[in-house]
Amino acid sequence: MVLDNFPLCFTHDICRIPEFNQNSIVKSYIHNQRFSYVVPQDLIHKTLLIHCAGRTDSIMIKMFELIDSKKKELGFNSVICSTINEIISALKEYKPDLLIFDCHGDFDEKTLSSYLIIDAENKITLTGEEIMENKFSAPLVFLSACNTMPNYGYVKFLSDAFMQAGAFSVTTTFLPLLITDAAILIVRFLGMLNHQKDNAIHSNWLEFISHVLRTTMIHEAIKKATLKNKDLRAKIPNTEIATILADTMILTGEGNHYCD
């Protein structure tokens, strides 16, 4: 979506209104009125990143290693799980405030539902029913996996299941993701979350998530453009890139914008 010749997500904080029926929207409103959650500044230390992939999925495993190389520096927790029971154990051990799933995802045309792929080789998946049955959730959930919330008539979304299990916010994906781009996003996401520990910049979770997504897209666009153009590279040094990304917080303002 473009506004004034710029991608809308570059200038506004956007989220999709949940595609619930009216009764569910009311229930969600009541839930948020009765229970409250304040994002702690040390959220990075209460973050659990669950990696899932088959043993022969070399690209995913390589990206897991890249992300986990930042564990000591940033202070988040991560585990590699290949079964539902391993996920259960990890959630019991860490009791995260922020739960991130880093894996493959897909949707089932027969059941009109989305699901996470835990181990493709052994055909192990995580469905919405299993999420609700085992109460897999946290106050904040972030899904780095393909097609976790398509809107082509699908009615059983993973976001609904996590919300039903107790989440206050679930960040999902609409389209497929490139594995390397997803890994870069997670690294930037965790790095900026660590920065929030000492500098509370954002007023709410949507503003933070939007800023991470927006700056990652802008950063990668500049990076790819300057790799092909030496003159442009000289005009936009790293210090200038940092200024551009910081300016996006001023340009977007503090208001949140919603798109149905």
Please provide a written account of the structure.
With 260 residues, this protein is of the alpha/beta class. Helix content is 46%, strand content 18%. The protein contains eleven helices and twelve strands. The strands form four sheets. It has a five-stranded parallel sheet, with helices on both faces. The longest helix is centred in the C-terminal third of the chain and has 24 residues, at 205-228. It is globular, with a radius of gyration of 19 Å. It starts with a strand and ends with a strand. Residues 253-260 have low confidence and may be disordered.
% residues in beta strands = 15-25%
The number of helical runs is 11
Number of strands: 12
The percentage helix is 40-55%
Short structural summary:
This protein is α/β, with parallel strands linked by helices and 260 residues long. The protein is built from 11 helices and 12 strands.
Task: Record the SSE blueprint.
Blueprint lengths: L1 E2 L2 E2 H4 L2 E3 L5 H13 L12 E5 L6 H11 L2 H4 L2 E4 L3 H11 L3 E5 L1 E5 L4 E7 L4 E3 L1 H7 L5 E5 L13 H7 L4 E3 L7 H18 L8 H24 L1 H6 L2 H15 L4 E3 L1
Parallel strand pairs: 3-12, 4-5, 4-6, 6-10, 10-11
Antiparallel strand pairs: 1-2, 7-8, 8-9
Comma- or semicolon-separated keywords:
260 residues, alpha/beta, globular
